[in-house]
Amino acid sequence: MGKVITLLTDFGLKDSYVSEMKGVIYSLLPDVAIVDISHEVRQGDISSASFLLLRAYRYFPRGTVHLVVVDPGVGTSREVLCCRTENYYFIGPDNGVLAPAAENDNLKYIFSLNLEELPVALKEVFSGSFILEKIKTPSSTFHGRDIFAPFACYVSTGSPIIRLAVKKERMVATSLPKPVLTEGGVKGHIIYVDRFGNLVTNINVSLIEKDSEVFLKSGYQVISFGKLKRAYAEVKQGEPLALIGSFGTLEIAVNGGNASEKLNATVGDEVLVMKK
Questions:
Q1: What is the dihedral of CA 85, 181, 48, 104, to 10 degrees?
Q2: How many domains does the chain have?
Q3: Which of 4, 111, 116, 171 fits as disulfide partner to 64, beta carbons 3.0 to 4.6 Å?
């Protein structure tokens, strides 16, 4: 299997930012496979980006470099990290976006990039590449193209990370909220809303007892969805339901509709699963 680099950003696809990053990567590694996890993360939404990374990373070949650029601190003194885990490399800003996925895959080492060493190391590995001249002076507002992308290429070659980075003990943590077991069942929260308007919760299927009932607390309203369904079509078109999504967690949806809009619900709203 050839080299794989994934991209997860909040750049959207209207502008040229994503293509510029890919251009740098292909210029340094013409045979690499670039896979887009998403570029539609809400601007600066570190929590949503960390959830998407946690959800997606495990489905890629071992040795994949996962590159995340959701970086509201671009141009500041925040560090650029590479996390080496049991099976993968995770590269991104030290703002918490990497932590849930890296820790989930048995984090081994954390490296902090030495920005002064990056151009030197790139010349050693990619000698003669014309693109190095174009990115030798990084933009203060586009580290994704000028720092993160070439750093991901360097790591993808298997070159020693310690050559241009130093080990560190800790990184900024982003803790996705955890469900709480109660006497009557489980209390959790909506942690993500997908493009269909499905409300993804942090309640794993393993915590839900048979015949439990699901409730959503949004604002001043409490909505009951009854027992879990197996498929959207088990309710009429336009009706809400609760089911287990493809990530193995409880989701609230509307058959043929948008649950977030219909129920006026969003990230942070409380979800209760009550024993029958």
A1: 0
A2: 2
A3: 4
Read off the pTM: 0.93
Read off the pLDDT of residues 33-72 as tens digits, 9 standing for 90 and up. 999 999 999 999 999 999 999 999 999 999 999 999 999 9
Distances (CA, A) of 83 to 41, 50, 220, 261: 21, 14, 42, 37
Residues 138 and 34 in one domain: yes
State pLDDT tens for residues 116-143.
999 999 999 999 899 999 999 999 999 9
Which of 8, 78, 46 is closest to 176 using CA atoms? Answer: 46
Is residue 196 one of the residues assigned to a domain? yes
Element (H, E) at 96: none
Residue 73 lies in a domain: yes
211 within some domain: yes
Q: What is the pLDDT of residue 220?
A: 85
The domain in which residue 186 lies consists of 180-274
What would the pLDDT profile of 244-269 be if each residue is shown by its tens digit? 999 999 999 999 999 999 999 999 99
Residues 230 and 135 in one domain: no
Q: Using CA atoms in the order 89, 91, 96, 101, what is the torsion angle rounded to 10 degrees?
A: -30
Residue type, 173: A
Which residue has tokens 């203060």?
A: 140
Q: Compute the distance between CA of residue 218 and CA of residue 259 in angstroms, rounded to an integer.
A: 12
Task: Examine residue 175 and state whether it is found in any structural domain, yes or no.
Answer: no
**Listing from the earlier edge strand, what are the strands of the sheet with 165-168?**
33-38, 4-9, 65-69, 89-93, 80-84, 109-113, 165-168
